[in-house]
Structures are given as C-alpha cells and as structure tokens.
C-alpha cells in the first residue's frame, strides 16, 4: 500500500518536473541562467548610472563604519557558548517545518526571486513508529524523511552529459537587481593540508608558522581585519611557540570576533574512507585542545572545503558538536550546477533515517569549482583571477595574469567589475548575502600578501559602501557572521537528503580511485583505530596510574591520518612514509599502554603482546611462543564475544591451552601458514573463547608432553613440489590431490563455502542455512588515473593462474581453512577462506583474508557474481554508520559507479541478502544484477594532474579482511524502482564489530598472576542494540562514555537471543560512579538533557567520574 502511494507521488513529481523544465526553457531569456546572452564584461551596461556618478571614496568614513559594524557583531561572538543554542535553534525553528513537496517549483521570476517557492501543502508527517517497530526498522518505505530534495532522485534525473564542456560554471549568470541590498563578507582564510606534497612537520616549519604569525600581526594592526582558521593540528604547534602576550591577544581577537575557528577538528577529515570512531576522535582531539588552551575560540560552523565528496554523516557529527551551520565545497559539477540553478545550494541537510529532522543542519555548498580566490568571487574565474591580490608576492604569476593594483584612477572600474561578480554569485543564494573566501592553500606566508589583499580591497570596499546607489555593504567578516546574517533573512531553506559521492570535477574524471589508493595504510589505519579504542577503554579502567601523554600522542597521530590527503592515500611518497612512521609509533604506543593497563588491573608484570609489527611496511605477525606462558585475553566490546584465537608456538613442544583454573578449551593445531607462507619451525594453536563484555580472562599455555590439542587433517591441491608435503606429513595427517579432485567444501550444515579445486574459485556460499550460487573472479582494470582518479578502460582483464593454483586445506574441530595462492603476471595474491564450526552468538559467516603483492599497473578487484536478483542496486555504508543505496547508471562511466565502502556493502532481493563486511575501506561497485566487486589494490603509472605530481607505484604486500554473510530476508519484496532507506541486520553489526575489534592477547611467564581470578569483568554488557564506541579518559578520574544505538532492519532476524534491557548507566560499573549528561564537544557546558533521547542511529555522550565527585 505504501509503495503504491509513493509510486504515485513519484509519478506526480516527475510530471511536475517535466512541466517545470518545459516552462524553464520557455522563459529561458529571463531565467537565472540565460543561455543565449553573450558574456558581457562591460560594467556600464549593467550599472550605467553608478558608473557615471561615484568616482570618489572616503577612507576615514569607511574605517569608522566598518569598526562600528564589527563592534556590534563582537557581542554575538563574544558569548558564543550561550548563544550557540539560541542562535541557530531559532533558525531551525523557522525552517524545520517540513515543506513537504516532492519536487521543487523552479524560481518563477528566477532572476529576482528572493526565496525559492515550495508547494506549501502540508503532507502528513509520517509517524516514526510506523517504520520503527520495537527496536528494529521496517525498511519498505522510501524517502519518507520529508526531504524536499533527494540527491538520489537528482542523480536519476540529470543527464551528466550536456554540461561537461563547462564543468558546471555559470558565466552567463545575471546579477541580482540593484534594488536589492547585497551584503558581502570577505573572509580571509588559508587552507593548510597537514601533509600532502610535504610532510606535516615540514609544512609547519616552512609555511604555517609564518602564515599564522603574519595573520595575527596583521589583525593586531588593522582593527577591521578578520580571519578564520580550521586545523587545530597546525594551530596547536604555533600556539606552543607563542608568548603569553600573544596568546592573550589571540584570545582577545577571538572574543571580539576578529578571529574564528571553523570546524576545529585536528584536521579536515576525509569523508569517504573514514570511520566514525576516528572522526569522533579527531573532532574531540581538536575541541579538547581548544578547551584546554584557547576556550575563547568555540567553533560554530562546520568547514569542509577540500574533501573529495561529502558524507551526510559529517552533518550528523556537526550537529552533535553543536554547530549551527556548515560549509561544503567539492560536489559533482552537474549536481552542484543543478542545485545552484534552483537556488538550492543552501539547504538543511537531513539524515536518511531522521524522519523528524532532529539532526538537520543548515548547510551551504560553495557554488563554484574551488575554494581559492580565483574561483570564489563570482562565476567568472578569469575575472576573479584579477582580484587574486595575494599573488603579487609571486612576481611570475602577477605578471602572467596582468594583475593590477587598485588606484584612484581605476577604483571605480575595478569596484564595479567585482561587484558585478558578487551580485551574480548572490543570484545563486537565497538571502542577498555572500561570503567570499579570500585565500588559497598556505596563503599569507608572506606578510606582504596580506597587505596586498587588504590594501587593494580596502579602496574598493569604501568606494562601494559609500555609493548608496550600489546598494551594497562589503566588509571583512567571518563565516559565522555570514550565517548569522542569513539566519535573520527569514528565508525558508529546502531540506536535502543524500550523499555527495562519487565526486567529479570535470568530464568523466570521477574521484573513485582514492577509495582504494594505498590500501596498506588504510588497513593500518583500522588496525590502529582498534588498538587505540582498546587502549582507551583499558586506560579508563586503570586511569591516572600513568600520565596521559602517550595516549594523547597516539590519539593525535590517528587524528592526523584522517586528513583528506592521508587516509585517502593521496600524498607524495615521502609524506606517506612519514605518516607510516607515525602510525607505527602510535600502534606501538597503544600496545604498550594496553599491556601496561592489563598488567596493572591484573596485578602482574613482564607481559607482551602475542602479535607485533616489526617495521612500517610489515604486516602484523604472530610472535612464536617457546615457553610455557600465562595468556591474558582482553575484549573491550560491551557484549559477549565468542571468537577463535590464534597463537603461534614453537613446533618442538606439545603445547596446549587451558583456562587458568585448568579447565579445558576446544582447540586444534594447524600448520603455521601466515599470508601464504609456511613456517616449519612453528605451529598455530587455534582455540575457541567465550569472553564476557569488557573483560580480561586468564589462560595458560603449557607443555603437556603429548598432544592434547587435536591436529588438523591437511589436504594439498595442485602442489608440484613435494617438499611441503614431506615436511607436513611428519606432523599432520596429509593427503595430496593432483590431477583429479572434486569440489572443496569447507564448513558444514549451517555455514559452508564451496571452492572449485581446479580454479580455486568460489562456487557456492552458505551461511545461516541459506545458499547462494557464486562465480568469483579476480580481475585487473587498466587505469589511466592516478592517486585520486579511477579511469579504467572499457574492459577489465580476468586474471587466471597459468597453472593450477596451489591450495592448502586444513580441517579440524574448531575450523576449516583453505589457503589459495594465485600467481598472475608478476603479482601474487593469497586468499584464505575460513569457516568456524562453532557458530558464535552473532551467527555464521565465511571469513576471507587476502594478501596481495601487486606488481602490475591497474586496479585489482574481486568480483562475486551471484544469483541474487538485486536489480541495479547496491547498498554501502557511510563512515561505518549509515547505509546508502546506489543504483548502477549506464549514463555514467564505470568509475562513476564505484562508491566508498568504509566497512559494509550488500546486495539483496526479496528473500536474501549477501553482505560483505570489511576490516578496512575499499572502493566497491555492482556493475550488473547480482554482482558485487571490491577493489583490493591499485597501481598507476601516471599522475592524474590534481597537483600530486606522482604516480602510485610504491605498493607493498597488503592484507585485507572480509566477512561474508548470507541472510534470509522476511519482508515484502522491495520494488527495484524505489530508493530505500536500509539498515544492516543486528547480526551483521555484531559480525563487523568482532572483525574490527578482535580480542587482544598478551603473554608472560607462568606464575606471575597475583590473584587467581579466571576472568576480570570491568563493565557489564550494554543492551544488545547499543555499541560502546569509546570510553575516553578526559581528566581527574573522569571519562567520556560514547555509545551508539544501532539502527537495524526488521527484515532479518538471525540473532536468537538479544537482551534489550535498558540499564541505569551506573549499574554498568563495579565501582561507584557519578554520571552526567555532557555534550560531545568539551567546549560546551554539561546539558540537562536525559539519556532517554538516545534513539536508534544516534550517539550519546556522558561524563563518568570514578571514585570522587566531579570537581568542575
Ligand atoms: Zn586540502
């Protein structure tokens, strides 16, 4: 019934759109974009009167007037903490009423329409309860979040062809009429990448130190001058070097609104590959630093001018951090052009699942291609370039571009020309106000470049402000001043829902390469995230026994790597090496602090982790244990974890594992095969554990004289060399298969995978007793792209091993495993398939681990072709949190059909869902019905001309981890016409969590444990639909408890037992604790709100204080 209704609405919407497009064309000459009007730079034709009249300007008057303006605005910023709620909540009160039309009505008198007109008919607001049944989501509805603009509809509608020639530019834009007053805020900024062509440290030493000093000194000398800054990672370095006097002055500039921090994260994070844990970490790092050192600078505006594609999850984060608005930039040129033409670059960004719009945030998209001076002043970059005054400090550039300074003889002509650009830009905005970013990457490293900007704009500002006929006010400003201004304009902003992937800046240049570029470091990032999260939780429970310096340094390194040229893999080689060095340092720090915390809690010493990373380009390896040892195994998930553990032991001993009370543990002994390599000197002891929530459990590894653990049976397929067989035969029951063999089936009744023994390819998958037929291919795309762009040719090459691939199969009571080694061209790929016989509480899955050593140019992908009738849809996650549907579009090139997969992708039909969960981010696509393919690694032989200047060929052997789930769906079949708001199953969340956060094992000499506790539980389980995101030490015995409420589908119910029991938070802890609601940002005051507001898909934050009452 609902689907029928929605179909009708869509049909109506489409009809309406067609009619509007027709109208739009008919009135083309008077519409916003007048296609046929010739470019006309003659100012007098636009402002004939003013061009004649005002040729003078008055410095004194202007100086006074801008001062007055400023001091008025100081008040608003001065008390930012208090105002934050009021200021933007008022705004939200104005606009959060759903405007409820399916399609926008185009501006009728488009040139001059002040506000966009919407169908005001109130559609019945859909009650959330209809779709949110008990704890899970009924997901058959579409677009029911009352948004005016669904990006998915827009993508459906746009041709993605005709506009390719001008890349979404608006050279024929008409200015807003003179009768409408325009307010212009010139906002000096400098975009500083914490690592790209140069390293973070070198950029600081060479550029950022100078530019921050220059801007500060200039602001101290010029009272009407203002500026903004974004990256706390750089700013904190500068702050450390400043005298107390400078710091006090900066605080005064912030109080007066002459300096503003935007976003205030440690970096401006990438939005495609990043995970919510790390995004929260980097935001908290930035805001905590500000709270401690510079609390006068409370960021109020989100700022993402350079990330290559944008995620609505950042809108949720920004809303959580108390921002009133946000500014974004890099959106596909066709989408951007369409939104701009319809005056929709300012909108309230709504989460797909947020029926009530409680997390909406006012968002503004820069309408032009870039954030640099040459493209922000207006639609014509050739004109803007002539106002790029900072370039005077680069003689070559200023000469090439014929830059001229503003003089008394040219001020009129120069003023009118730029005013024309501003007024044209204003035509794309709703409130007759624009802010113009003045600056570029690392701008203002020369003091003279600020003077040039200031001194050349100043006479023009005065000229314009002093001519009433121009009806314009121009001033130096900050971004929050701009948003405060438009907030007062009573404009009703449309509601937009959806994501902005995959980004393209011109032609068929889609930025989908960086979803996979340098996967080794993307994997290392996730290993570090897990390691840091575990360290945080363990540290919180043994807090204050050691200093927080090490923890802070590890946090800051993880944060640094979230930068949009770091985790993206788009920095130069030397910079990547520098990041790697830092990441490894942070990893070792976390291992050290975790181990120390475990030892302190358990009252022991001398333990070390059973895994390690020997060097920056090495994968995690198992240490070989050659003595009897005590094992301490910790899990920091806030629920029970049933999982297989693997340790490596010297093959000379007959080791077995038992609990510390000497009770037995199911276990088996496997040949030591790591990343496809066999080590005859060691063997793997594989055992099954059942670990309570947030706990440390004690086990022993002892030499029992003879084998207690069961030895696995080994099958060798397609092995030409007998040496491996011979070395295995002495230890294991071994069978070799040569020319004739049947299918290889791993697993049993509930979960199984079938491989073709000749080709080694997967044929069938079964989990939860559901079976899917699969053809699995490994393929290589040729690629003319580089670090950012994926530019495949029309076909990809299927990779087959010239000889039959070697397969080692091991079968035992704990698990079956197949290790397949593929050799093609000069590259190697090892695929390890694992099926556990003990199905854990999350249900069954097939594990796939890959190790690829890519030596050939191109993009290496694994493609699963299944018999699932998935239509043209694939579902992928955004930042590990929200699920976004994408439909294959033949009108886009292959590269435009690839999307980021930070952790999850699935395809489904009416009865089944196939999910692939990953431990690291990848690019993913579904290029045909039933297909799902993941890029594993890439290597390019050329640069893609986006400034990096290097090809990407520094590949190293790279691991990746996946879990594959086949789940039954019990819900009416979704129509393939519809866009769905979807959710993972609860089982899928749990499976992913245990993949991302495996148990941590340390070993030490037997007899060290002072108490004989088998298990120390530190925190009780959360309700089964809640996740412990972080338990982060703040100060003075206080930790920030961050939880996430999972939004999961009702259509899949594979979890047999689930405890939804809500707890009093204090009951979670063994000790007495004080708990207070606290906003995410430490810069804000503790709030009165109650945890009862904590709903599915939301995060919650509390401060938990141990032992003593909170003292601030
Ligand atoms: Zn950047």
Number of strands: 53
Quote the distance from N terminus to C terminus. Answer: 55 Å
What is the approximate shape? globular
| Alpha plus pi helix count | 23
What do these coordinates show?
- By secondary structure, the protein is of the alpha+beta class.
- The strands form eleven sheets. The chain has an eleven-stranded mixed sheet with strand order 28-27-34-35-36-37-46-43-42-39-40. Strands 29, 30, 31, 32, 33, 38, 41, 44 and 45 form a nine-stranded antiparallel sheet that branches. Strands 3-13-9-10-8-7 form a six-stranded mixed sheet, sandwiched between helices.
- It is globular and about 95 Å long.
- It binds zinc ion.
- The site of zinc ion has 4 residues, from loops.
How would you summarize what this structure contains?
This protein has 1112 residues and is an alpha+beta fold. It is built from 23 helices and 53 strands.
Topology:
Layout: H1 2-26, H2 43-46, H3 48-53, H4 59-78, H5 80-95, E1 132-133, E2 136-137, E3 149-150, H6 151-157, E4 182-188, H7 200-221, E5 227-229, H8 232-240, H9 244-255, E6 259-261, H10 276-293, E7 301-304, H11 312-320, E8 325-328, H12 333-341, E9 346-350, E10 361-365, H13 373-376, H14 381-385, H15 395-400, H16 411-426, E11 433-438, H17 447-465, E12 472-476, H18 479-487, E13 495-497, E14 504-506, E15 509-510, H19 519-541, H20 549-560, H21 573-602, E16 608-609, E17 611-612, E18 621-622, E19 624-625, E20 629-635, E21 641-650, E22 655-659, E23 667-674, E24 677-691, E25 695-703, E26 710-711, E27 713-717, H22 723-729, E28 733-737, E29 744-747, E30 752-755, E31 762-767, E32 770-783, E33 792-798, E34 806-811, E35 815-824, E36 827-836, E37 846-853, E38 858-866, E39 873-878, E40 882-887, E41 899-901, E42 904-908, E43 912-918, E44 922-925, E45 931-939, E46 958-968, H23 986-996, E47 1000-1005, E48 1015-1017, E49 1026-1035, E50 1038-1045, E51 1048-1049, E52 1073-1077, E53 1099-1106
Parallel strand pairs: 2-51, 3-13, 4-11, 4-12, 5-6, 7-8, 8-10, 9-13, 19-21, 23-26, 27-28
Antiparallel strand pairs: 1-2, 9-10, 14-15, 16-47, 17-18, 20-25, 20-47, 21-24, 22-25, 23-24, 25-48, 27-34, 29-30, 30-31, 31-32, 32-33, 32-38, 34-35, 35-36, 36-37, 37-46, 38-45, 39-40, 39-42, 41-44, 42-43, 43-46, 44-45, 49-50, 50-53, 52-53
The structure holds zinc ion.
């Amino acid at each position: 019934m609902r689907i029928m209704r929605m179909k009708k609405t869509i049909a109506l919407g489409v009809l309406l759109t067609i009619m509007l497009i027709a109208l739009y064309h008919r009135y083309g000459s008077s519409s916003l974009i007048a296609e046929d009007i010739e470019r006309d730079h003659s100012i007098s034709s636009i402002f004939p009167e003013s061009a004649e009249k005002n040729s003078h300007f008055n410095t004194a008057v202007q100086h006074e007037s801008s001062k007055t303006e400023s001091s008025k605005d100081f008040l608003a910023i001065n008390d930012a903490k208090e105002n934050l709620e009021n200021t933007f909540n008022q705004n939200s009160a104005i606009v959060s009423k759903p405007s409820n039309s399916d399609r926008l009505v185009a501006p009728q008198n488009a040139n001059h329409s002040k506000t966009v007109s919407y169908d005001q008919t109130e559609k019945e607001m859909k009650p959330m309860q209809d779709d949110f049944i008990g704890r899970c989501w009924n997901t058959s509805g579409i677009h029911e979040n009352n948004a005016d603009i669904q990006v998915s509809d827009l993508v459906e509608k746009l041709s993605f062809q005709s506009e390719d020639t001008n890349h979404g530019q608006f050279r024929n834009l008409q200015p807003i009429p003179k009768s409408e007053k325009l307010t212009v805020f010139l906002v000096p900024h400098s975009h500083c990448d914490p690592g790209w062509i140069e390293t973070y440290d070198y950029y600081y030493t060479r550029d950022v130190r100078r530019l921050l000093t220059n801007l500060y000194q200039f602001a101290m000398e010029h009272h009407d001058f203002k500026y903004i800054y974004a990256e706390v990672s750089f700013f904190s370095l500068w702050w450390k070097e400043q005298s107390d006097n400078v710091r006090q002055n900066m605080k005064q500039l912030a109080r007066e609104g002459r300096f503003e921090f935007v976003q205030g994260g440690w970096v401006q994070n990438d939005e495609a590959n990043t995970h919510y844990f790390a995004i929260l970490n980097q935001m908290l790092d930035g805001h905590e630093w500000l709270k401690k050192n510079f609390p006068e600078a409370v960021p109020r505006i989100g700022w993402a001018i350079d990330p290559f594609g944008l995620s609505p999850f950042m809108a949720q984060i920004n809303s959580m951090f108390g921002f009133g608005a946000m500014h974004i930039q890099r959106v596909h040129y066709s989408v951007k052009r369409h939104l701009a033409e319809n005056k929709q670059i300012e909108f309230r960004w709504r989460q797909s699942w947020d029926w009530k719009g409680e997390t909406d945030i006012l968002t503004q998209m820069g309408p032009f291609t870039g954030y640099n001076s040459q493209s922000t002043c207006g639609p014509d970059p050739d004109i803007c370039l002539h106002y790029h005054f900072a370039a005077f400090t680069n003689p070559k550039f200023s000469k090439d571009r014929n830059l001229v300074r503003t003089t008394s003889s040219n001020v009129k002509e120069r003023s009118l020309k730029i005013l024309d650009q501003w007024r044209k830009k204003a035509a794309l905005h709703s409130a007759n106000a624009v802010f113009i970013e003045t600056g570029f990457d690392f701008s203002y490293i020369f003091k003279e470049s600020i003077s040039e900007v200031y001194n050349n704009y100043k006479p023009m500002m005065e000229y314009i402000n002093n001519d009433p006929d121009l009806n314009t006010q121009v001033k130096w400003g900050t971004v929050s001043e701009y948003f405060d201004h438009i907030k007062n304009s009573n404009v009703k902003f449309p509601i937009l829902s959806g994501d902005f992937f995959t980004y393209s800046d011109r032609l068929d240049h889609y930025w989908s390469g960086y979803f996979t570029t340098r996967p080794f470091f993307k994997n290392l990032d996730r290993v570090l995230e897990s390691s840091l999260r575990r360290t945080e939780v363990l540290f919180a429970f043994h807090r204050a026994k050691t200093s927080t310096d090490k923890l802070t340094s590890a946090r800051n390194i993880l944060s640094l790597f979230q930068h949009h040229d770091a985790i993206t893999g788009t920095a130069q080689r030397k910079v990547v090496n520098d990041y790697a060095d830092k990441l490894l340092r942070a990893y070792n720090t976390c291992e050290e602090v975790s181990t120390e915390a475990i030892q302190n809690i358990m009252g022991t010493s001398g333990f070390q982790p059973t895994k390690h990373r020997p060097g920056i380009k090495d994968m995690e390896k198992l240490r070989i244990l050659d003595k009897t040892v005590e094992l301490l195994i910790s899990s920091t998930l806030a629920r029970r974890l049933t999982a297989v553990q693997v340790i490596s032991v010297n093959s000379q001993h007959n080791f077995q594992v038992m609990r510390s009370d000497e009770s037995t543990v199911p276990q088996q002994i496997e040949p030591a095969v790591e990343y496809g390599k066999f080590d005859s000197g060691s063997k793997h002891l594989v055992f099954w554990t059942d670990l309570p929530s947030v706990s440390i459990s004690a086990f022993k590894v002892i030499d029992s004289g003879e084998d207690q653990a069961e030895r696995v049976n080994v099958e060798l397929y397609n092995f030409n060399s007998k040496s491996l067989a011979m070395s295995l035969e002495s230890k294991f029951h071994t069978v070799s298969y040569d020319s004739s063999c049947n299918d290889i089936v791993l697993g049993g009744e509930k979960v199984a995978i079938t491989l073709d023994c000749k080709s080694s390819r997967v044929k069938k998958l079964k989990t939860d007793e559901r079976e899917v037929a699969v053809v699995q291919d490994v393929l290589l795309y040729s690629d003319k792209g580089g670090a950012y762009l994926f530019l495949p040719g029309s076909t990809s090459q299927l990779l087959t091993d010239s000889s039959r691939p070697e397969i080692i199969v091991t079968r035992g009571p704990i698990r079956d495993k197949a290790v397949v080694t593929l050799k093609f061209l000069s590259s190697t790929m090892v695929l390890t398939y694992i099926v556990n016989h003990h199905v854990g509480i999350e249900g069954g899955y097939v594990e796939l681990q890959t190790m690829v050593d890519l030596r050939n140019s191109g993009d290496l992908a694994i493609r699963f072709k299944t018999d699932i009738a998935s239509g043209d849809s694939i579902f992928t996650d955004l930042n590990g949190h929200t699920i976004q549907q994408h439909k294959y579009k033949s009108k886009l090139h292959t590269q435009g059909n690839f999307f980021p997969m930070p952790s999850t992708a699935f395809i489904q039909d009416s009865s089944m869902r196939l999910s692939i969960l990953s431990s690291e981010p990848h690019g993913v696509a579904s290029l045909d019905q039933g297909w799902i393919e993941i890029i594993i690694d890439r290597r390019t032989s050329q640069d893609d001309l986006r400034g990096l200047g290097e090809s990407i060929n520094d590949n190293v052997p790279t691991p990746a981890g996946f879990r594959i789930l086949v789940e039954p769906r019990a819900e009416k079949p979704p129509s393939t016409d519809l866009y769905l708001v979807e959710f993972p199953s609860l089982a899928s969340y749990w499976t992913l969590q245990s993949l991302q956060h495996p148990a941590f094992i340390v070993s030490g000499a037997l007899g060290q444990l002072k108490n004989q506790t088998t298990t120390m539980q530190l925190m009780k389980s959360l309700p089964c639909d809640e996740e412990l995101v972080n338990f982060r030490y703040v100060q003075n015995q206080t930790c920030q408890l961050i939880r996430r409420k999972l939004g999961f589908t009702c259509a899949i119910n594979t979890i047999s037992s689930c405890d939804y029991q809500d707890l009093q938070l204090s009951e979670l802890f063994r000790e007495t604790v004080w708990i207070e609601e606290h906003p995410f940002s430490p810069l804000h005051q503790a709030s009165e709100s109650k945890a009862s507001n904590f709903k599915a898909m939301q995060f919650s934050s509390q401060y938990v204080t141990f032992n003593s009452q909170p003292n601030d």
